[in-house]
Here is the input.
Amino acid sequence: MSVAWIALVAVLGALIGSFANVVVYRWPRGESVVTPRSRCPSCGRTLAPIDLVPVLSWLALRGRCRTCGAPIAPRYARVEAFFAVGFGVLAWAYPVELHGASVVPLLALFAMLTTAALIDLDTFLLPDALTLPAALVGVAGAALYARSSGLPTVAEALVGAAVASGVLVLINRIGGLVLRRFADTEERLWPFSLDAVNVAALAGAVGGWRIALAAGAAQVLASTVARRPVRAPEPLLYALWLLVLVLAASGIFLGWGVGVVESAAGTVIGAGAFAFLGAAWWWGAEIASGKRTAPLDEAGAPEDDDGEPVAMGFGDVKLAAALGAMLGWDGFLVGLLFAVVLGAVVGVAQRALGGSRFVPFGPFLVVGGFLALAFADALVGWYLGLLGV
Ligand SMILES: [Zn+2]
Here is the structure.
């Protein structure tokens, strides 16, 4: 039964991988992912079902079009095989007999986030249409996890999403500040702006996560009433933020109840919550206004919407929310560690081989996240074993 089930899920993965190829090719060009049917790019013939069997068609046709003999890129078959293996491994690691429907949200997240990572590789863009719904699947899907699976509860998924986007948005803001040589940001948005993120980060460092959420909400409310962004100079805020964290780490705050752990948790949860709410708000506003351009037109170097240089794209912040929901905050930090190590290894290898292509961070985050899903428990257990706990 079990082997048949795993094989069935792997076949489903290959079929979804085949659809992912279509999305990865068409989405950046602003084309419909549903119509028209797939064609050979050389001779234009509409492909028949026999040409579209994942992996097998490519192998049977030896990587060539059946009509005109033009070569078909091996990447399509590789993506289908990767989806089949990923789905199969998840079905094997989270067996239905033991953990019920736990595997269903994981399969959805694997499909959505792998597709987003492939688009990021091609275009340096992570589509909101994939990352934001994936974060929702990560939080809502947690309701389906069996307790025996060791996966997060809904509350843990929410905290994981906030911590994950908080860590990445703080890297984004502080990295951006350094790249701008500590000049204030040019961003002028309301009601949701980076000011809310910055204010929540500082308030969270001072008073923990409840104070962070209250302060961020106050900033959004003030901007809404004023009908313009109520500014909080970014260089000043992060100078204070650093001071508060140093004081918390040195134990000075312990007198009135906020220790270093509460301070650090407050700052990442506050910053992450308002980064994610802002991202969701502006995505909704973009859809409501109906002025969506073909994403490829705006692709380019890693800059944010105002053309400011940033250390890490804002798309990574939304992607991190989805991974944080899937892994919980502790699993996400393990995944981030995997991603940074993988990114460094690939970067060094690329330089050694004389390549210079800029590789975005999103794909490393996705691979690191799923490695953490597989290995975080074993790794944390091994580490605690070393400490003799
Ligand atoms: Zn052809």
In short: The first helix runs from residue 2 to 26. Residues 40, 42-43, 45, 65, 67-68, 70 surround zinc ion (CB under 6 Å). The chain has a mean pLDDT of 88.
